[in-house]
Amino acid sequence: MTRRTFLRTGAAGIGTASLINPLIAQPASHKLGIATTSYMGVWRPHDTLEFLEHCHSLGAAGIQASINGDIPKVHARAEQLGMYIEAMVPMPKGSDTAAFEQSLKDAQAVGAVALRSACLGTRRYETFTSLEAWQQHVAESHQSIEAALPLLEKYKIPLGLENHKDWTADEFVTLLRRYSNEYLGVCLDFGNNISLLDNPLDAIEKLTPYTVSTHLKNMAVTPYPDGFLLSEVLLGDGYLDLPAIVARIRQARPNARFTLEMITRDPLKVPCLLDEYWVTFPDRNGLYLARTLRFVEEHRSAKPLPRVSQLTHEEALKVEEQNVIACLDYAQRAFL
Length: 336
Prior knowledge:
Elements: H1 3-9, H2 20-25, E1 33-35, H3 48-57, E2 62-66, H4 71-81, E3 84-88, H5 98-109, E4 114-117, H6 124-127, H7 131-155, E5 159-162, H8 169-179, E6 184-189, H9 200-207, E7 211-215, E8 218-224, E9 227-233, H10 242-252, E10 259-260, E11 268-270, H11 286-298, H12 313-334
Parallel strand pairs: 1-2, 1-10, 2-3, 3-4, 4-5, 5-6, 6-7
Antiparallel strand pairs: 8-9, 9-11
């Protein structure tokens, strides 16, 4: 049984199952692409071509993915379908640029319009247990960026570094101004920075001028004893004014594409009331905490935050796909 056949017929009665059949049977032509991280919970595509074909079957405008498999075939198929590709690439490890350059060659060969990477693949407040460890990471990140820039200029593909629960918005702006390079910008994730006690809308506004690519999503929050819980939710269910954000990015960065990152998972804990949370934030203080907790209280979700860890594999597979399809449909109707 194929994935698409399963989604037509399997796991009846879960969530919004009625959404799935008509949308798969007659996929709309969307202006929103899909990042492979939308499927980081359950499904794993075999290669880039399989992901491209799947996203085409949903009517997506493009993909953001690691590049692998038959690269000439992926390029030809994307051109045939009129879909964009953004390549997910690793940052150089220090001065070792071999893997990074190979990723750029693959991205160029596949016709990628942009690159996405990150300096940290985890969360700052969970990864580093001392300020010194964070500062060492900062130094290594600068070394990686400095090694990457000559190659970005050589291959002439813009790189968006994601605001991946690592840099505060002000830190990120300072970093980008330091290098001031036309091929270095942001993969603007709409939801991450509240976890660092940034106001979500302020962070988006500060990073918008540097936007190369996006992770479009909506978020919901609710308090918990050690801080607050944070979840990706269906685009119409969160606290972000997506039409206004999209319009602002379009105005400032008309070449940026909008790529869905709808991660279906249990809520993330942001333990901002614990001492260990604060060790890497020497410039944050109680004002940031008070403002964030007030924001959480004012925007607490009226619905329970989504949880999927209790589901069977088949149930979780279907919910993951339902969420992606529902988000594509909402974006098409509401703001794209």
